[in-house]
Amino acid sequence: RSFIFNDTFTNYYNPDVGLAGAKVLSKAGHRPALAPNVCCGRPLISQGLLAEATELAARNAAALHPIAERGQRIVFLEPSCLSAVREDAPSLLRGEAQLQAKRVAEASVLFEEFLNDVDAARLPLKEGPTTILLHGHCHQKAMGLLAPAKAVLSRIPGATVVDLNAGCCGMAGSFGYVRDHFDVSRAIGERR
After folding, report:
1. Model confidence, pTM
2. What CA–CA distance (Å, rounded) separates 8 from 22?
């Protein structure tokens, strides 16, 4: 069994992505369930609200630790949330909570990482587009996780995956949603 980290963005803004992810995991022979998590804290971290982010990190460490201890995977659809759980939570916490957060971090994988470990025969893909343009997410690139995305997309029969290497989109998490940041966000997105 695998558990999907129910991130805020997917849950409230793009639930079709979460439903599609669960469907793919099911087709690959897994029984996905929603993890018992709260927000990863990334929006709070990006705003410098570390005390509040630390509280969420502790809640997630406690809630997700039993899954990790059972050797089950926590699958993330959103690279920013994975970064917060893998990298930030263990740094924010201390003592037993930090140990739990480290174990949770070890059990946490990006959707594409998880699929990359699934035998291709268990996930037969149909022919699709001949060219797939891939714009990597900044946190995905920072964690070195663009390769699994390229590998999984390359399994599509007849497809060539092209890494756009387009730089930052300018959104930077919640930054791009602030009206006063529009001009800066646009300038960053148009750099490359």
Report:
1. 0.89
2. 16
